[in-house]
């Protein structure tokens, strides 16, 4: 018996076919059983809920209108719940819900962050190039060259936004961001003053420049606000440009403006129709202080004093101006003057313009330059006169 038990092998277990399994499931379903919803299912399936219509998926019913777990499933079996959980529709809706609750943790968001980081890095380089052009007064056409140079250095500059038109757009954005920063400073200022002066641009068109001045935390700040070409430099036009320049930086400026700094031209300081008087009427502040630029007043006072006591002043001013144009309008004369400085082992100091702007410092600089380079100038004048004499046959 023992020997028999030792050698006994149980018969292999009979494996049911898929057809037999399906048949058994059908027979099981035919049996009359009472099933009910189990509350503990909600611990395992947090998206599950029980309604009067049956089991529903709280996530799917937010994104879909049809489906057994949207309208209500009464097949209270755990297998039905698992089957719904594995469905593609449920998985998609779960991703939607996660993205809605925490957008930063989705795959799309992470990919977008990486993409944005790369794009922002490229844009930072491009904005720096444009900012450098603006600081140095270079044309936008140089922007493409700077981008090509960055690329040659191995920097990731990208292939987009590398035209002069895009450079102009970047410059506009930089200016607007800087204006916004200044607006925040002016929002806390109680009093402001404007400074304005006229000039001509490279095309000899009348241009008005406006600065706005205020005090913040005990520090005086002067901010550039506007430069604008004007059709004509009359009081009405200039006053409108000044107001526009102030409005660029200061909201409700009528209650903060206390002074205007200008030159002494009648179009600016005329007591009846001058630009300052028009702005007084515009802001309804008749006591608004009009300040005559001290630099202009000093230059005017100096000229009046010198012309009365030193008749030679006009001749000196004319001489300095003629020397300036003698070298400014001739490349040959400038080159020969530089050779004279080199011969004398002196630093090259070219004559500067006098009388172009109403500042006494310009006259002083012109005189200092003439005195510093007097020997070189005299040497060059001797050479010029010698050649002229030989040319005309004068011994």
UniProtKB/TrEMBL annotation:
Superkingdom field: Eukaryota
Region (Disordered): 1-33, 84-106
Any Pfam family: zf-C17orf113
Comp. bias (Basic and acidic residues): 15-33, 84-104
Protein name (Swiss-Prot/TrEMBL): C17orf113 probable zinc finger domain-containing protein
Domain C17orf113 probable zinc finger span(s) in chain numbering: 53-101
InterPro entries (alphabetical): RNaseH-like_sf, Znf_C17orf113
């Amino acid at each position: 018996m023992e020997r028999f038990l030792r050698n006994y092998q149980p018969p292999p277990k009979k494996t049911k076919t898929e057809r037999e399994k399906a048949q058994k499931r059908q027979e099981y379903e035919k049996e009359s059983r009472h099933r009910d919803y189990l509350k503990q299912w909600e611990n395992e399936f947090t998206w599950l809920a029980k309604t009067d219509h049956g089991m529903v998926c709280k996530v799917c019913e937010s994104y879909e209108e049809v489906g057994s777990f949207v309208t209500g499933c009464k097949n209270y079996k755990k297998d039905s719940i698992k089957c719904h959980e594995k469905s593609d529709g449920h998985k998609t809706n779960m991703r939607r819900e996660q993205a809605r609750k925490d957008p930063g943790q989705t795959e799309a968001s992470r990919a977008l962050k990486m993409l944005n980081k790369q794009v922002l890095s490229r844009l930072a380089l491009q904005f720096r190039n444009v900012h450098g052009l603006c600081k140095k007064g270079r044309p936008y056409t140089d922007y493409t060259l700077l981008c090509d140079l960055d690329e040659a250095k191995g920097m990731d500059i990208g292939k987009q936004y590398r035209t002069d038109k895009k450079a102009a757009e970047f410059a506009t954005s930089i200016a607007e961001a800087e204006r916004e920063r200044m607006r925040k400073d002016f929002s806390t200022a109680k009093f402001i003053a404007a400074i304005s002066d006229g000039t001509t641009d490279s095309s000899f068109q009348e241009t008005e420049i406006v600065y706005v001045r205020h005090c913040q935390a005990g520090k005086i700040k002067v901010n550039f606000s506007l430069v604008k070409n004007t059709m004509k430099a009359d009081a009405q036009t200039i006053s409108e440009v000044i107001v526009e320049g102030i409005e660029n930086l200061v909201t409700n400026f009528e209650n903060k403006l206390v002074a205007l700094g200008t030159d002494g031209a009648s179009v600016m300081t005329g007591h009846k129709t001058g630009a300052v008087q028009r702005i007084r009427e515009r802001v309804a502040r008749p006591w608004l202080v009009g300040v005559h630029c001290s630099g202009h007043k000093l230059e005017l006072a100096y000229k009046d004093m010198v012309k009365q006591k030193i008749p030679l002043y006009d001749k000196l001013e004319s001489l300095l101006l003629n020397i300036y144009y003698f070298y400014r309008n001739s490349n040959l004369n400038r080159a020969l003057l530089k050779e004279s400085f080199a011969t004398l082992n002196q630093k090259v100091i070219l004559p500067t313009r006098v009388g172009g702007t109403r500042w006494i410092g310009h006259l002083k600089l012109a005189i200092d330059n003439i005195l510093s380079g007097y020997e070189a100038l005299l040497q060059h004048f001797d050479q010029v006169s010698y050649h002229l004499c030989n040319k005309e046959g004068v011994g």
